[in-house]
Amino acid sequence: MAIKIFIDQGHNPINPNAGAEGNGYREQDLVYYIGKELEALLNADPNFEALTSRGSPTEQLGTSLSSSLAARVNAANSWGADYFISIHANASDIVSASGSEAYVYSEGSPAYDLAQDILTGLSEATGLSDRGVFARPTLYVLRRTQMPALLLEVGFITNAGDAALMAEDPALISRGIYNGILTYFGL
């Protein structure tokens, strides 16, 4: 039976819940395309079935921050996803900040190991540094999902190199994430 992975492309096209901006890019646009590329890779593999939270770049989820987050979690829960991956772009006042990191509900969870494998896959594919996996039990999408969940900060939108990579080669980033998923499942 296929492993069901729900891919949440973080944020909305406009507020409420719009994302970070940097180097002429918007987080919600970059992660939309990375998520769709990852969905296509997973759905082309008979071991997986994938679904994204946003079906089009203009799709708006919810009418407030809380209803936007709830829409993503409720979609994954009602679909019966086995794993939940929320894709984001990081931001910092320090423009040299670079690399990928992930957040999970707790360090002892299956999501922790999956997040580590995804960060390794991303680093190997893109050359971005692996900044580690951190427990963030307060994050709504990690707290309210009924399956192992992780929030992935692919790179820094405020770093010119990271931002260009996310904008110009979303397929490379999604391939790195996919490779990490394959490693986790021993495929």
Structure in words:
- By secondary structure, the chain is of the alpha/beta class.
- It is built from six helices and eight strands, in the order βββαβαββαβαβαα.
- It has helices at 27-43, 65-79, 110-126, 140-143, 160-168, 170-185, and strands spanning 3-9, 21-22, 25-26, 48-52, 83-90, 100-104, 130-135, 149-156.
- The protein is globular, with a radius of gyration of 15 Å.
Strand content: 15-25%
Widest β-sheet, arrangement of strands: 4-1-5-8-6-7
Low-confidence runs (pLDDT<50, min 5 residues)? none
Question: For the residues shown, what is the average pLDDT?
Answer: 97
Distance between the amino and carboxyl termini: 14 Å
Work out the number of β strands: 8
User: What is the C-alpha radius of gyration, as a whole number of Å?
Assistant: 15 Å
What's the multimeric state?
single chain
Largest sheet: 6 strands, mixed
Tell me, briefly, the overall form.
globular
Task: Give helix % range.
Answer: 40-55%
Q: What is the chain-wise order of helices and strands?
A: EEEHEHEEHEHEHH
The DSSP helix count reads 6
